[in-house]
Design brief:
- This protein is 63% helix and 4% strand.
- By secondary structure, it is mainly α.
- It has two domains: 115 residues, Arc Repressor Mutant, subunit A; 132 residues, Four Helix Bundle (Hemerythrin (Met), subunit A), CATH 1.20.120.
- A three-stranded antiparallel beta sheet has the order 1-3-2.
- The relative contact order is 0.20.
Length: 262
Amino acid sequence: MSQSLAKLLPEKVLKQEPIHQSEQLPKKDANMDAYRQLFDGILSQRLAPGTKLNEVELTQLFGVSRTLIRQALQRLQLEQVVEIHKNRGAFVAAPSPDLAQQILLARHTIELAVVKLACNRCKPQDAQKLQYMIDLEQSAIDQGDMATALRRSGEFHLQLAIVAGNQPFVHALRGLISQTSLIIAMYSHGGGNACARDEHSHLLAAVRDGDEAQGLQLMAHHLGHIVSGCDFTQSPQVANLQGAFAHLSIAGGGLGSGNTVK
């Protein structure tokens, strides 16, 4: 490992023992874990917009195969938070201020339509699942894990679209929600643009009761927090991969191996 990279890592990370092969995640879980670690790294701004995501370096950091890293990057590309360029590799997406505002407008338009549909289709089991997702989000907030809380918030909105029963909306929102999370991570000035638990709870109550007017008002107010909480003049700095994931327990051949990443 180069001296410059070593300086970025806490001593306890550099000295930790490799995880034995038997302790490593199954491939399916390892693929999901790599995806979540990358997604959470983007949302928490450990990986800033424009950061290059080197496959070889990520393979060593996560202790999984290059194929699994590539699959994780391709999933993030589908969610439009990572861009993959031929002969250049993968980079964290960096939507311009103009594109960011277009994305938020598109999401606002679709989410209002989703609420109208969901108010007429929500069943008791749907409401129960949505409540469970609110609880997961709050649990992440209570633990101070804001990146996971932001991801859980997005999952709540996506599940609401599933309840609405319109597949084109679900497909569109899958990308728009992930892009919104990136925009929040990129442009937030800390003005309260995260989805508050009580707002999700009130929105769920309106949907469960079939109250379209109340649901539309709550959703518009809810999404308005995202726009008001963004400063589109900010320019986040590009991050270093090993510094971004120094908190992880790395499998054999990773940070503890002493190899210089190329």
